[in-house]
Amino acid sequence: MNSETYRIQQLLKNSYDGEMWYGANLKYALKDIDAEKAFCKPSAGSHNIYELVMHMHCWRNFVLVHLNGNADFKVEINSIADWTVDYEKTDANWRQALALLEKSQADLVEVLGKFEDANLDESMHARKFNWYNMIHGLIHHDIYHSAQIAILKK
Predict the structure, then answer these.
(1) Structural domains in the chain?
(2) Is the pLDDT of residue 1 over 60?
């Protein structure tokens, strides 16, 4: 593995379950959240913790699918795929959401382990941005939503 890709992989690992300069990582933010708390909406029109987790999973999956070569996979911003609205508020669904997030983390770490520094500057399947920006953007996206989860958890 090349050094820049390795550093990005380490940042992904740390933001998920390692040490970060700003404090709590995503896994810590999700610690001790039960289904009742996960599905609780703080106000009408806002997202709950479950929806935030599924939203993060959606975009992690988007990046994974593209990293694995499927340039045709699309997710429309603010679509039902992006922000799930139809779900049962069960403990099993909450546990499944956490498992999906955990699996996406393992898969991203694995795929990044095979990614080459030389590819970071390449356009992500003819899009306006390159792989470097997309992968860093995903990490920033997770950090942003982990802060929202930490606030909703209180």
Answers:
(1) 3-153 (1.20.120.450)
(2) no
